[in-house]
Amino acid sequence: MLTVYGRATSSNVQALMWCIGELGLAYDRLDIGHAHGGNRTPDYLAMNPNGLIPVVRDDGGEPIFESAAIVRYLACKYGDETFWPGDPNHRVQIDMWAEWIKTSFGPAFGNGVFFPMVIQPVAQRDQNAISTAIEKLKPLALILNARLQKGPYLDGERFSYADIICGHLLHRYFTHEFDRADTPALRSYFETLQTRPSYREHAMVSYEPLRAKS
Ligand SMILES: N[C@@H](CCC(=O)N[C@@H](CS)C(=O)NCC(=O)O)C(=O)O
User: Measured in angstroms, how far is the CA atom of residue 93 from the centroid of ligand 1?
Assistant: First the structure.
């Protein structure tokens, strides 16, 4: 049994929960973070000194933080050869895209566009910085679009953990209104992901509770 510490409205929790759903694992999820609090207590900081969610414990084992590391742990322990291939030459192609999304496309969208346009209080928003971030995101979206022209998934015909690291961002990316690059393959990928029940259940979670009121 996995214990997941983290609220369902967190995008990193959504990636993890989608992974758990794809692998059909039993879990207990506790609402921690944001309005729920609970992530600055001594007990929580002993599990993750950053005070961030998610954290996972597998059968009461050592706490694990960093969502991508947790997803790879679950892939390694419970996934099949397709989900995270053992062959280093194949694995690195998948890891490469997962890493790029986690460090390039993800922050460019999440920190640069989504957070300041949706979550940050209106009075603190810097419209010039947001406009710059929107422009900087466009070439990254085009890189992803070019890769997905070879799809339907990041690893061609095979659905892998890299699709989780990427795809969980797309609900926010395509439902939040902003000036996006023209990326038909990326949009079609988003539509393909929506045929997966675990994606709909865990990654298409409303972000309205996070929206700044003023
Ligand atoms: N790199 C970390 C980032 C974790 C992170 O930033 N989590 C956010 C939610 S997505 C958080 O804990 N925010 C504080 C809160 O919810 O109270 C990961 O991928 O797990």
Answer: 26
